[in-house]
Amino acid sequence: MTAAAGDPARGLIRPSAAPPRRHDAAALLALALLTAVLFGRAVAGRGVFFQRDVQTYWRPQVDSLMRILAQGAPPVWNPYFEVGLPLLADPGYQVYYPPQWVNLLVLPDRFYALFVAGHGLFTAVGAYALGRRWGLRWWAAFAFGAAWLSSGPYLSLVSNNAHMPGSAWIPWVLLALERALHLRTARAAALVGAAAALQLLAGSGDMALMTAGLAAARLALWLLRAPGPRRDRAAVAARIALAGGTCALALSAPLWLPTLAIVRSGGRAHMDPSLNAYWSVHPATLVDLFVPGAVSTLPLTPATREELFEGREPFLPSLYVGMAAVPFALLGLRASRARGLLLMALALALVATAVGRYGWLYGWVLEVPGASLFRYPIKYLLPATLAWAALAAFGLGVFGEDWTPRACRTARISGALALLGAAALAGFAWALLRSPDVLAGIAVDLPTAAAGLSARVAHSGTAVALAGVLLIARSFLPRPRPALTAAAVLLVAGDLLLTGRGVNPTAPPELMAHEPALLRFIPPRPDGFPTRVFAKVDDARSLNRRVVRGPAGWDREWSWALGLQDLLSPPTGARWGLGGAYDGDFTGLGPATLSAYSAVVRDPRAGRLALNLLRVGGIDYVVSLEPSPYGLREVASAESVYESPVRLFPVPEPAPRAYLARASMVPHPALVWERMSDPSFEPGKEIVMVGDAREATPAPPLEGRVAVASRRADRVELDVALAASGHAVLTEMHAPGWTAAVDGAAVPVETANLLFCAAAVPAGRHRVVFEYHAPGARAGLVAAAGGLATLAALFVPRTSRRLPTRQPSATIAAS
């Protein structure tokens, strides 16, 4: 098989000669059509994305952000999630990511469809351009882009608003790096940093870290494999890494500086390694890479689901990377200069990392600075999929080259092996139909499970059989045939497209337009603060069993999503301006105390302490399917998709959102919990603080008045009158960045009841102001401004200052 043309001095991966423009245009048009097939229904408004984070996190996030901006507040603090959470420090809000700003002009559901489709086309084009830079012919580069876009792991991220755009940037960062290695200029290095910064601003630190690892591996490979003096090349690589890294950190500083300031004190920085390794890829589920949904879509027994997916749904609904691509990926191992071998080694290493707790490599990865902040090893399948798609594309490139007699014999053998594999898969599919009991102990409803698995195995068998037929047909032709090459490309892309269309089902638009019936029974607070609602939600498995009805003609999954809205499952209530409660620290930005509060209020043994915690946090209502949680009185109910009505319970005498109290000082946090569980404890009148105290004594009553003078998301002004000194308490979660001032003089913000904000106030009349300033925000903006100025200076056209010289006239001798 012939090697791709190129200059050996340029290293392992070389730019190709410029292709005819019409081929590029045709490939890009085909990628656009592929994008339309995958996402066109949502873009056209005939359906809405709703699964996972789209409904339960992204949409509440967007609605709360719009409310905050409408108040004239900067987007730094979110009073609608939990009992208040840092906003700017959460990368998932993508505040500084330019495509997210379109959300200000377009309705959310339509925006998200455009966001998904736009990033899909963007990443496919990036993979195409990267393939061309790597020397692929246009059809093979098209296959690279199509296989990456249509792969199960990439499509599975549509339900994750941060990781999806972050993964879309991977090929573009690598493309910028290839260009920098070729040009070796400051401009090219700065563009690497700009692409990496945009990937960071897209909200996924995980994808940025993985891409940085790929870039580091590429630089190392460039040094090891390229000819020429290593010392000179090491200097070039160091300059590119330094300039690109500095530019990336400067341009993305408005995001990562506030995040780092919060993370250092939050739960994310102190995760148990078992949480890091949650959602590891169980080795038994690796079969899903080549048989679509072989394990993930089976109706598994609870014990099996606990073993394979830790009791939850898979983080990536589809792992499928294409059975039709397998013979061509193996053919790609024959690509010149060991390109295929290196890509295969990279893909295998990344898969070994993705298995997490079931292997040893992930433990090493956690030792990399910053890696321990991230969770879910399964995410490493994303760069593995990109490497696999590139390997298959190189194989298709080889498929379209001239072959030697030896290459033809090798292809004939490979095709025969593919047909034998297809026969084995067909036999297994037939055996499943004949003996569904083979799935006993693994799945429930054995006949249905066997029929479904048999169909998926048959799909993979058909795909690899067609690939084998194409290889055998090609083996009798020393010179390529365009029709066979086109058939191979269409087979690889079509196999993935056929399964990829079902990864992200859409729901009727009415789902996202629905408003829970209980909303009309929840009045707004007179002080302007969001009404806080605690949804006492069962775990997902038991809640799923309670869904017994739904709108006529709706799929069960749509009804399930509708039920979560009716139950105001957190943080769904933020969509309608409701505040959260103790919902668990799902961002990792809260202190450990938030998780402790969340655990206590759900513990049936907590008794009075659980109810007191609800009162301490100013929680106004509890929503539950159960009658009388915490002994509360029901005031309203509404029928929903569940077997029981959704019920509403007011919390008796919740603490005001801002109040005056005298503090009881205790020497240890455990004594705070003890005091809050005491029958004599009075939420809203007393707070407990950890400090220097010889004994814990209840605080005497404090006489005084407090009124909210003004309020917005990040700032609360109080008019206070006190007969004696005490504390003004704001029931927002205490986080780095909260400040307090009494009559304009700064005072420390202390922690009340282990979680909330308090400030000492002397006797008399005072104006007390609590205000949140995102730590690191100003420094980040200054760094970004400097980065933008430097970037602009590099791209200012440089004109020569020399004057043009007069050229002598030509003379013609007379005849």
The protein's oligomeric status is single chain
Percent helix: 40-55%
Instruction: Let me know the average pLDDT.
Output: 90
How many helices? The count is: 27
Shape: globular
Rg over alpha carbons: 30 Å
Write the layout of secondary structure elements.
Blueprint: H1 21-43, H2 53-70, E1 77-78, E2 85-86, H3 108-133, H4 138-150, H5 152-156, H6 163-168, H7 170-183, H8 186-201, H9 205-225, H10 230-251, H11 253-263, H12 273-276, H13 302-309, H14 325-332, H15 339-354, H16 361-365, H17 381-399, H18 405-434, H19 446-475, H20 482-500, H21 510-513, E3 533-536, H22 540-545, H23 556-566, H24 592-602, H25 608-616, E4 621-624, E5 636-638, E6 646-650, E7 658-666, H26 669-676, E8 686-690, E9 704-712, E10 715-722, E11 726-733, E12 738-742, E13 745-747, E14 750-752, E15 756-761, E16 764-772, H27 777-795
Parallel strand pairs: 3-4, 7-8
Antiparallel strand pairs: 1-2, 4-6, 5-6, 7-11, 9-10, 10-16, 11-15, 12-13, 12-16, 14-15
Q: Could you explain how this protein is built, in words?
A:
This protein is an alpha+beta fold. Among the domains are: 510-650, no CATH class; 658-772, no CATH class. It has 27 helices and 16 strands. The strands form four sheets. Strands 8-7-11-15-14 form a five-stranded mixed β-sheet. A five-stranded antiparallel β-sheet has the order 9-10-16-12-13, with no helix packed on it. Helix 14 (325-332) crosses helix 15 (339-354) and helix 14 (325-332) crosses helix 17 (381-399). The longest helix is centred in the middle third of the chain and has 30 residues, at 405-434.
